[in-house]
Amino acid sequence: MATKNAFYAQSGGVSAVINASACGVIETARRHPDAIGTVFAGRNGILGALTEDLIDTGRESDAAIAALRHTPSGAFGSCRYKLRSPDQNRSEYERLMKVFEAHRIGYFFYNGGGDSADTCLKVSQLSETAGAPIQAIHVPKTVDNDLPVTDNSPGFGSVAKYIAVSTREASFDVRSMAKTSTKVFVLEVMGRHAGWIAAAGGLASDATTPIPIVILFPEVTFDRERFLAKVGSLVEEHGYCTVVVSEGVRNPDGRFLADQGLKDAFGHAQLGGVAPVVADIVREGLGLKYHWAVADYLQRSARHIASKTDVDQAYAMGTAAVELALAGKNSIMPTVVRKSSQPYVWEVGSVALSEVANVEKMMPGDFITEDGFGISEACREYLTPLIQGEDYPPYSNGLPDYVTLKNESVEKELPAFEL
Questions:
Q1: CA distances from 384 to 50, 132, 140, 203 (A)
Q2: Catalytic residue among 144, 146, 151, 312
Q3: How confident is the model over 370-417, as pLDDT tens digits?
Q4: pLDDT number for residue 247
Q5: Which residues does 64 contact at the CB level (< 8 Å), separation at least 6?
């Protein structure tokens, strides 16, 4: 097998474990120097390929690469940049092929969610029609857990653990103060269309630690009067209540409660700020004292409390991506295959990118309780294994000891490219 170089990039919102996938890719590639020469990382995702801003990961020590496994966020920089179809902007794809050819790149590993899978699919399709031998492998990542086919997405388990823990801890706080102060706490979490992260808040309450929790899912149309009745009854019974609300909750007219009228780089509605909206509904409708918080970046960067299951799976997906490429596979994504929930057993599988790109996995209807405000036992059985285990990073002076790579760029071979 002739030696070819590889390109790896991170895309979209980062997570507590995306660097564990990077670690898996790079460490596995280093074990096959006869097939893979240098692993180049794109600075700021696919932009690094388009602008030929390539990072030579070979200049990083083995120890530095190993430390990526316990370091959160994107070590090489990410981006929200979606390639249009070749028919709309062929120049971008031609540029990618030129950059790959100039640097003898034969493997393309793109680490991200559904939009990234679409980019990876387009690159693989173009490389076939252009006669350029590029093997495109998608490395799954999304905190939203909305990638299809795979049982779960690396990044989600750690967010779920953070939200479950935060919901339980904040609820203890509210319970302590409810007699004379705050009676309702509202926690806003990520999730534009799928309520997986919000569902994780339901894990905070169990048989040994019962907590009055109301969950607002994107899959369930928001009903103001039913919501107020539920919160009011829980406060009357328990003295307090915690509300976990997904950013993607919609009004009966289909509009997001938190729609600001803005769009992100992918053309999606720019959300955020649903917690104060819900809190104000509680104030107006029930006259109760409240507090609200937005988990925002905290939920996806909290490596200090990452799920060990999530870390292990993220690393395994990076390793599997390289192994699939070495086996001659193209236009494919490694997946997590659940064999059993009790005890939890999983293995690595794979799926064609044509089945993944631009497809969102929603929560099954039977994962939500009949009243639309909680999680079912089936959902609990699905979620619980994903938050299991602790994988603490090393600490120094009381703080996590994360790695910052040198990220040295290689010399450019081509003229500049205008985006």
A1: 41, 44, 20, 8
A2: 144
A3: 999 999 999 999 999 999 999 999 999 999 999 999 999 999 999 998
A4: 93
A5: 403, 405, 406
Residue-range domain boundaries for the chain: 4-142+305-359+391-400, 156-303
Active site residue 115: no
Reported as half-sphere exposure (CB side, CA atoms, 13 A), residue 161 has a value of 26
Distance CA 117, CA 354 (A): 9
DSSP state at residue 207: S
CATH number for the segment(s) 4-142+305-359+391-400: 3.40.50.450
Query: Residue 69 corresponds to which tokens in the numbers above?
Result: 């496994």
**What residues contact residue 389 under an 8 Å CB cut-off, 6+ apart?**
307, 308, 309
- Please give the single-letter amino acid code of residue 253: D
Do 4-142+305-359+391-400 and 156-303 share a fold?
yes
* C-alpha distance from residue 374 to each of 197, 227, 230, 248 (Å): 12, 12, 11, 16
CATH of the domain spanning 156-303: 3.40.50.460
Judge contact between 6 and 40, C-beta under 8 A.
Answer: yes
Sign of CA dihedral 143, 6, 118, 82: positive
